[in-house]
């Protein structure tokens, strides 16, 4: 009945917009009606990497909008047929904002809970640092990310550095940076409730790709060597967290760009050259197995909420995250495929040729379960295999 209503609604929408109701639109909806009639819970879920799979820069690639539309009963209303998430090491904005941006770029209704970013696990550190003075590093709005997670005393490294005169000896040559900082500063950044120059930083969070490497390496070394107070004597190293450890990623430029892992290597190398004790840090993001465990749990929750009044064998297991198969579609063998391989059952890895990997066959060190040209091909394969075409 629900499926019938969907067909009628779609027809009504077409009528409203003066469009003819054609078979390519009715056909998939009729099929989803037959699935609904069986009240079958979804038995599989999909995790998509973003950069180099779904988007290059801000442009959709590999037929990604068409591929995603096939995972909905009705993509206008956002009613999911197949549970899926975006599992990216990228970030810089809160999940809600990223979901809105992706919805606009891809033409489907994406929920904040479907966006799992490199920095999403920082939430789990809230208990430890909720009221502590911490510094957030990276492009986008790293303070907004941390504030959205509940951290109360966060400053961006831009704002933090501005309180220490001459901390960056190259600042006078970076007029563009100073100008931009003043324009973009949010209220939280402009009115710190702490005495920045006497309060020790308890932790530094590299939320997204750092913008000004020379300044950030200098200031982070200052913070980390002095127990959190630049310009003072050496002290115990504050905690340091990276949202991911990708050496490179595929952006708009034809060849790969240096990622957060490259920044980590640079910082670590400098720090270890000027400090007696080696740098201590924790990196999150793919290929860490817990990231895939988290994605599995989220897909289970999405399956539960997407199937509504599911009945029959398997329905009770959906909430227990017992989806029978989980697909990871990525372009980076050492991150996406390596991660899915380490996570093991029930993950199945699919490597696309639209990003970092461009080989003819499979990757030698981290071979995927399947190699395809595009994400659209990957989704087509999955839906055929699962009998959901
Ligand atoms: Mg990628």
TrEMBL record:
BP GO terms, sorted: glycerophospholipid biosynthetic process
Top-level taxon: Eukaryota
GO CC term (a single one): mitochondrion
UniProt keyword Hydrolase, yes or no: yes
One GO MF term: hydrolase activity
Keyword set includes Transferase: no
Keyword annotations: Hydrolase
SUPFAM superfamilies per UniProt: HAD-like
Transmembrane segments: none
Designated name of the protein: HAD-superfamily hydrolase, subfamily IIA
């Amino acid at each position: 009945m629900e499926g019938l209503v969907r067909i009628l609604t779609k027809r009504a929408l077409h009528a409203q917009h003066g469009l003819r109701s054609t078979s390519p639109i009715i056909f998939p909806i009729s099929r989803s009606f037959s699935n609904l009639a069986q009240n079958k819970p979804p038995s599989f879920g999909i995790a998509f990497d973003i950069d180099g799979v779904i988007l290059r820069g801000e442009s959709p690639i590999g037929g990604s909008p068409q591929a995603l539309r096939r995972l909905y009963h009705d993509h206008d209303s956002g009613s999911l047929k197949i549970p899926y998430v975006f599992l990216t090491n990228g970030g810089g904005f809160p999940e809600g904002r990223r979901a809105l941006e992706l919805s606009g770029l891809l033409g489907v209704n994406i929920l904040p809970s479907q966006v799992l970013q490199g920095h999403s696990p920082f939430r789990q550190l809230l208990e430890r640092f909720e009221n502590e003075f911490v510094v957030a590093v990276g492009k986008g709005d790293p303070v907004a990310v941390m504030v959205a997670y509940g951290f109360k005393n966060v400053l961006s490294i831009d704002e933090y550095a501005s309180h220490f005169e001459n901390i960056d000896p190259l600042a006078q040559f970076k007029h563009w940076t100073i100008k931009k900082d003043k324009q973009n500063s949010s209220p939280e950044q402009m009115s710190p409730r702490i005495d920045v120059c006497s309060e020790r930083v308890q932790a530094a969070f590299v939320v997204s790709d750092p913008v000004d490497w020379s300044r950030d390496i200098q200031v982070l070394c200052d913070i980390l060597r002095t127990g959190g107070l630049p310009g003072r004597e050496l002290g115990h190293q504050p905690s340091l967290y990276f949202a991911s450890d990708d050496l490179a990623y595929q952006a708009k430029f034809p060849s790969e760009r240096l990622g957060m892992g490259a920044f980590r290597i640079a910082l670590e190398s400098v720090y270890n050259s000027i400090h007696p004790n080696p740098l201590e840090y924790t990196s999150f993001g793919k290929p860490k197995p817990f990231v895939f465990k988290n994605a599995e749990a989220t897909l289970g929750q999405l399956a539960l909420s997407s199937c509504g009044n599911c009945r029959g064998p398997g329905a009770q297991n959906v909430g227990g995250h017992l989806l029978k198969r989980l697909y990871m579609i990525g372009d980076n063998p050492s991150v996406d495929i390596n991660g899915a391989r380490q996570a093991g059952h029930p993950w199945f890895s699919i490597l696309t040729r639209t990003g970092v990997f461009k080989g003819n066959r499979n990757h030698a060190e981290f071979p995927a379960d399947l190699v395809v040209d595009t994400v659209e091909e990957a989704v087509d394969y999955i839906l055929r295999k699962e009998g959901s075409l």
